Amino acid sequence: MAAAVVRGGPAGWRRWHRRVAAMVCSRAMASKTPVGFIGLGNMGNPMAKNLLKHGYPVIAYDVFPEACKEFQDLGAQVTDSPADVAERADRIITMLPSSPNAKEVYTGANGILKKVKKGSLLIDSSTIDPAVSKELAKAVEKMGAVFMDAPVSGGVGAARAGNLTFMVGGVEQEFDAAKELLTCMGSNVVYCGAVGTGQAAKICNNMLLAISMIGTAEAMNLGIRLGLDPKLLAKILNMSSGRCWSSDTYNPVPGVMEGVPSANNYQGGFGTTLMAKDLGLAQISATNTMTPVPLGSQAHQIYRMMCAKGYALKDFSAVFQFLREEETL
Q1: How do residues 22-49 score in pLDDT, each as one tens digit?
Q2: 202 among known catalytic residues
Q3: Would you call 3 exposed, middle or buried from its count of C-beta atoms within 10 A (0-12, 13-18, 19+)?
Q4: Which of 69, 179, 202, 309 is catalytic?
Q5: Nearest CA to 37 among 78, 97, 98?
Q6: How far apart are alpha carbons 296 and 146 in whole angstroms?
Q7: How many CA atoms are closer than 13 Å to the CA of 62, on its beta-carbon side?
Q8: Beta-sheet pairing, 58-61 with 77-78
């Protein structure tokens, strides 16, 4: 009897099932509460888009209004300040360039804490000083809300694909609530411990990344000058003990790989300025903990020199080009 209700035979059934599925999906989306997102730059933009793709209504803010235009067109609500975001959402993700930016967004005159609701969950995915994360967590706690640091690894490509790794620090009982949102943007969400430990994991990772990228650039440059074809050398390195992410996934030599910044005049990706900033954070932490990091210190100096010599806006893998041009180093 039921079959007689749906006209058009098998094709009619398929259309009916699609309509039912669409209604179920719409109800699921409607049940998701809004998520605030502050900071729509190279990383924040694709991260916020992935929240939208998973059905979360997004309430967006960026200091540059033009960054918000695209999100308005995608159906997100755009606000005039971080405080306005906090007034409309009780779950907020921030993705900001530096510690001063994070302080301003959270504690500034129009910051989140001006209008934050009690019980709100605030997740900071910026890479900042672990001490600043702890400072912000205390200020947030005084307002009856919860702060977690959740910096990311993977770069712009992983942000677009939703394959980021999140390193999360904060109250363990709140981890599942944070994970619900973070899994919309990442394939790995790792709990690291108390507030600040997410940042600690991130700056250790980026210090190692910088060192390995410089090492890859040096090895490739030397091999090329010794007469080796760069693609052949990369192939050998990647089947040998020298293999690393910088050699097999993000090779710094133009022409060796497609789809990486070195194939596009080092445009896009993870900027040299940001790498220098992260290495500076590692140096501060190393000083505070009296930890010897000689290669980290040298990497920091190299990336600072790159910033001073016109590489600030290029991807950090441009260290290959920098070393080729710096015969006196």
Answers
A1: 443 433 444 589 999 999 998 999 999 9
A2: yes
A3: exposed
A4: 202
A5: 78
A6: 33
A7: 22
A8: parallel
Does position 159 have pLDDT exceeding 50, yes or no?
yes
Q: How far is CA 15 from the centre of its chain?
A: 40
The CA-based diameter of the chain, rounded to the nearest angstrom, is 86
Q: Inform me whether the pLDDT recorded for 9 exceeds 80.
A: no
pLDDT of amino acid 6: 46
Report the distance separating Cα 85 and Cα 60, nearest Å.
7
| Dist. CA 209–CA 198, nearest whole Å | 16
Are 146 and 140 within 8 A, CB to CB? yes
Average pLDDT over residues 240-251: 97
Minimal CA–CA distance to 284: which of 130, 170, 98?
130
Burial 142-155 (b: 16+ CB within 10 A, else e): ebebbbbbbbbbbb
Mean of the pLDDT values across residues 138-162?
A: 95
Alpha carbon distance 124, 67 (integer Å): 19
Backbone conformation region of residue 265, classed left if phi is above 0, alpha if psi is from -120 to 50, else beta: left
CA distance 120 to 128: 21
d(CA 92, CA 34): 9
Q: Which pLDDT score, from 0 to 100, does residue 228 have?
A: 98
| pLDDT for position 5 | 47
Comparison of pLDDT for 266 and 17, the residue scoring more = 266
Q: Which helix (H) or strand (E) holds 180?
A: helix 175-182
Q: What is the mean pLDDT of residues 298-310?
A: 98
